[in-house]
Amino acid sequence: MRVSRADQSRLVTWWFTVDRGLIAAILSLVFVGLVLSLSASPAVAVKKGLAEFYFFERHLIFSLAGIAVMLAISLLQPSQVRRFAAILLLVMFVALFAVELIGPAVNGARRWLYVGGLSIQPSEFAKPAVIVVLAWLFAESVRRPDMPALPLAVLLQLMLVGLLVRQPDVGQAVVLCVVWLALYLLAGLPLIGALLVGGVVAGGLLLAYLSLGHVRDRIDAFLAGTPEENSQADRALQSFIEGGFLGRGPGEGTIKTRFPDAHTDYIFAVIAEEYGVLACLALAALVGFIVVRCLVAAMREPRAANRLAIQGLAIAFGFQAFVNMSVNVGLLPAKGMTLPYLSAGGSSVIAISVTLGVLLALTRRRADPARLTMQEPADFGGLEWGADRGR
Q: Fewest 10 Å CB contacts: which of 28, 68, 95, 199?
């Protein structure tokens, strides 16, 4: 069966306008995540007294659900994406307040809600939603100086970061602050404002260090230079040494049997031991390809709100992967941040799928309405990266 460009149905239009190279890279990342989950998670499951393939089966289900979510969102027009993001953000604010009231405390943190037997981490879903909304506010602050868009962007950021710090989830708060500063600068707003916000963020990190024991312990351990023997950081570094360039072979690693988080925060160390440093570099290159492809697409987007949203989401996706990989190789203090599509975790997988679905939706090619008339239907074979009919 051949798909014709003359067919104006929604799915056919989507197929000829979506970035298929980006989809292929994302699906490759999902496939790699499933292979690694099959390799790393059984040992953890057995150690926890669960069925051997418990974590793999969950990862498979959430990955398939995530692909469905991603593809569904990619069908949306930019205006629909912004409405979706605004509604999702409102729901997640309610969920974050609910976490404060009824969320269970796990290892001293309140970050999850249990709904229908599933644990949901609202902060994961709030992240892509707030980035899209912030991108629109920054774009409006430049386009319409009379609109209080910038104060709203500041207020929104303060509210969300405040809720995250109370959980506490300093890592997610830092990611959002980095993205906020990036969007501010990319929007072309005065540099002095970025310096002021940067100073506030630095002061907040200092306050977190002084007031939160687990943050202080992790930073002190990192600054000590040499990780404590048999700590997770020490074992992660050892996995890179033992794996060498080509690795010990699939399933041959031993670090996963000694790691409580081998299938989540330290999946990158498992890759290093079993598949080698070259595989780690290839994975980093795949993540980098997704980020760069999105940033290049953003350069062609004429509408500021869409362009900033693409840039913000791509930066958030890349920065999260960078932090996870850096922790595994000892370049950053330990932080419970997942590696997109590779680390186990339902909320993480679905939230990343929302992020990438929005990126696919916003990077789709759209016809320049100036070229279209009532007598001339859209030619989806010769689309330009022009103005966005759906804004």
A: 199
For the stretch 25-54, what's the b/e string if a residue is b when 16 or more beta carbons lie within 10 angstroms of its beta carbon? bbeebbebbbebbbbbbbbbbeeeeeeeeb
Residue 295: per-residue pLDDT:
96
Q: Residue 230: its pLDDT value, please?
A: 59
For the segment 70-89, what is each residue's pLDDT rounded down to a tens digit? 999 999 999 999 999 999 99
Q: What is the 3-state secondary structure (H, E, C) of the chain?
A: CCCCCCCCCHHHHHHHHCCHHHHHHHHHHHHHHHHHHHHHHHHHHHHCCCCCCHHHHHHHHHHHHHHHHHHHHHCCCHHHHHHHHHHHHHHHHHHHHHHHHHCCCECCECCCEEECCEEECHHHHHHHHHHHHHHHHHHHHHHCCCCCHHHHHHHHHHHHHHHHHHCCCHHHHHHHHHHHHHHHHHCCCCHHHHHHHHHHHHHHHHHHHHHCHHHHHHHHHHHCCCCCCCCHHHHHHHHHHHHCCCCCCCCCCCHHHCCCCCCCCCHHHHHHHHHCHHHHHHHHHHHHHHHHHHHHHHHCCCCHHHHHHHHHHHHHHHHHHHHHHHHHCCCCCCCCCCCCCCCCCHHHHHHHHHHHHHHHHHCCCECCHHHCECCECCCCCCCCECCCCCC
By CB atoms closer than 10 A (0-12, 13-18, 19+), residue 142 is: middle
Cα–chain-centroid distance for residue 100?
A: 23
pTM of the entire structure? Answer: 0.87
Q: What is the pLDDT of residues 211-266, one digit of tens each?
A: 777 677 777 776 766 666 656 777 788 888 888 888 888 877 777 777 666 677 78
- Contacts of residue 112, Cβ cutoff 8 Å, sequence gap at least 6: 99, 103, 104, 106, 119, 120, 121, 347
